[in-house]
Amino acid sequence: MGWVLQALNNASRYTVGLTGTLMGGYSTSIFWLLYRLSPEVRREFGFNDEQRWTEKYGLFKSVFYISPDDDVTEDGTYTGTKHFETVSEMPGISPATVGLGLEYTTFSSLKDIGLPLPAYSEQIVRLPLTDAMQAQILEADGSQTKPPEGLLAWALEQQKRDDGKGAISVWLNTALNRPDAMFRFEQVWFNRRISGRGKYAIRRKELVAEFDSVGHANGDREQPVSELLPKELWLARTCRVEVQRGRKVLVYVRQTGERDIQPRLAEILRDHSLRPAILRPSLAPAKRASWIKQNAEKMDVLLTNARLVEVGLNLSMVNTGIFYECEWSLYTLWQALRRLYRPGASMPVQMYFPVYEGTLEEGAINLLGAKMKAAQIFFGDEVGGALIEDEDDSDMLHGLLRQALGQVEVGRAEGLFGLGNDQLVTDSPIGSPTAISPHLVTLMDLWAQKQSIIRQTKRRNGGKRQAEGQLAMF
Questions:
Q1: Is the backbone peptide bond immediately before 263 cis, with ω within 30 degrees of 0?
Q2: Residue 253, SS3?
Q3: What digits encode the pLDDT tens for the residues 72-117?
Q4: Where along the chain do the CATH 3.40.50.300 domains lie?
Q5: Alpha-carbon distance 453 to 200, whole Å?
Q6: Is there a contact between 261 and 180 (Cβ–Cβ < 8 Å)?
Q7: Which candidate, 466, 457, 381, places its Cα nearest to that of 417?
Q8: pLDDT tens digits along 414-460
Q9: Distance (Å, rounded) from C-alpha 277 to C-alpha 299?
């Protein structure tokens, strides 16, 4: 593809190079595009200078371990024979890249092109926990009380020990995942480090906690679930209403690996006379768009992980999106939203964010709302290219821990991406990622319309000439 681009560029008088989310990808992804189109880049860099490019305009991540041995003189990962340092590129690009081609570069969004975009609205749905769920979440999380109880109290104590590193991750994953998986029995394990470091460490698996399923008749684990959890019931009812209105639904689920809850949700949807389908990661990325189009008429609801469709797919045939489980990354949320909010959508786009009240997931929603608001203020109308995936994840998890410990206060989020209504034009001075900012009339616009303005002025003045000593714009 690169050779074809170079050949077409050499044979053409003008070339328009397009790229998507500039600052959300790797810096080298734009290096070869600019190398073929920009003489300035070719003068400064060779074709194989991607590492030097990344050092100047991108982000590197270095991972190394320091051994306590006295004979160690270098930092790195200890393999028994030598020490080494692993270096890899991270998503992100320096704004200084703009200077390489600013004279012939434009930053445009779909709204600037003038394509018809659908109306957009969103709703955060806060659902109360049942009494049984509330009692279990105090054990599986514990951040709801002061001082903390349950797993959070255990994790904080373990972090003080040399062999307790990683306990915070056990609490975090359990607290975020358990509310949507309370229909099943679960054991929580901790891999305690005995000796060594990194991937060469020796660990011992320890059972931390056990949680019974919520909803089984008489607490019998062998019996099928006799009642639906509040979010499951809300999902089934909402999908039925949307399908009856002629709208297909896309449901984003985070637990799709070993803890997969998609089969459970698909079974519930079928019990409510709906036709669900599941998009699996085993399907190659290049085939996902065609698979969805081929099966669109056979399904009412599509279940998938947001990361499987976050880039490149046009799902304008789906009108309603539900983040059944919220992603930690604002970048992933943004890209998943963009799969539905596309030109040519036949109906307005509606997004739902259902969360359980008083859980860590609700705290995540509030943090995401605060981060999105800050991104809008800093970057203006279009913030999609300013969201960096890896850093967004780490900042999010750190923010959740600080919020659980009471070190940071975040207000209640009422929305993430839109204005909460169907208007397509925003009067907000900070703009909106989905609404169009008002068009500003520039001097060039007036110059292009000067003949029309002059004719209108003459008609209003009855064709009289301008008085002497008066100034005119044209």
A1: no
A2: coil
A3: 444 444 444 444 567 777 777 777 777 776 677 776 666 666 777 8
A4: 117-127+230-404
A5: 77
A6: yes
A7: 381
A8: 666 653 334 444 454 444 444 555 555 555 565 666 666 666 665 65
A9: 6
**Amino acid, res. 260:** D
How, if at all, do strands 77-78 and 83-84 pair?
antiparallel
Nearest Cα to Cα of residue 254 among 349, 320, 353: 353
Give the rounded distance of the alpha carbon of 427 from its chain centre.
26
C-alpha 315/C-alpha 349 separation (Å) is 11
Which residues lie below 8 Å from residue 338, measured CB to CB, with a gap of 6+? 384
Distance CA 376, CA 385 (A): 11
For residues 390 and 393, what is the distance between their CA atoms, to the nearest angstrom?
5
What is the sign, positive or negative, of the torsion defined by CA atoms of 136, 137, 141, 146?
negative
d(CA 356, CA 132): 13
d(CA 145, CA 63): 36
What's the half-sphere exposure (Cβ side, CA atoms, 13 Å) at 88?
Answer: 6
Strand runs (DSSP E) across 91-152, as ranges?
120-127
For 87: left if phi > 0, alpha if psi spans -120 to 50, otherwise beta; the answer is: beta
Report which residue type is found at 454.
I
Residues in the chain: 474
- What is the distance between the alpha carbons of residues 124 and 148, in angstroms, rounded to a whole number? 27
Superfamily of domain 117-127+230-404: P-loop containing nucleotide triphosphate hydrolases (3.40.50.300)
